[in-house]
Predict the 3D structure of the following.
Amino acid sequence: MADEKENIGEKKYKYSIIIPTYNERLNIAIIVYLIFNHLRDVDFEIIVVDDGSPDGTQDIVKQLQQLYGEDRILLRARAKKLGLGTAYIHGLKYATGDFVVIMDADLSHHPKYLPSFIKKQLETDASIVTGTRYVKDGGVHGWNLMRKLTSRGANVLAQTLLWPGVSDLTGSFRLYKKLVLEDVISSCVSKGYVFQMEMIVRASRKGYQIEEVPITFVDRVFGTSKLGGSEIVEYLKGLVYLLLTT
Amino acid sequence: MKHIVKILSLLVAISAFWIGLLQAAIVPRSHTWLLPIYFVVSLGCYGLLMVGVGLMQFPTCPQEAVLLQMDITEAKEFFRHKGVDVGSD
């Protein structure tokens, strides 16, 4: 297989897909199925970082390992909910790919965009390819007017203050060169979605080449809205922090 | 250079220009005194405009929800055949 690739002058890269999970018993199986469907000719591994889900997520992952192979699906669990940033760091330790993809487990990020991330990176040799929901071929489903307004207002504020060079700052569907992710993540201290902003802003400040691909985002329509007053305050605090320290 | 330094330099440059205008009195001083207010208000209006335009042009994708449901059904079928118990949502 390696010989075939060398003949057409193409290096075969490996992609590590890190998916932090908490209570995603059904969704993780669907995500794995979709990833295998959409990345048929790609060398990849899926690293599931589960934070001790009580709903049996790890059992499902073990069954998936039986089905797809333990070399394709790695379960690297932790004892309890420890946060997103540390989940990535934890997953990174076991990643053997040249590139690392981070994505959410709740099906808001669809694996069908993975080929476009990979293609964009190969075309541009970018250090980071980030998915953006806010361009023409992208989009969001499941947000009401208020949510869209908040998102748009937050984005304009962030663009004005930070000049980040990307259109979607809080997105968490991204492909990194492994070394770049290691470098950027070591200097980030924020939590939650401010962490995602910090990652991309720090990467931008460090001069890493960042490209964007359009993605669609289907929000979990059921359940409570995740955007209360405290979230807005956290966001503003995060903006000021990034303004002053990056 | 840190980003905040860039922004502060920009503000300093604008302030220097403003003070220069005040001293040179090319434009009547009464107007010049109001320039910072005009600037801030313009910035605010521009921001609101950007929010409004962005809101109007906000890309949506209702068909994606349908496609996703189809994918979920397909995946559940697949796992049912393979004997993996994914349970119900």
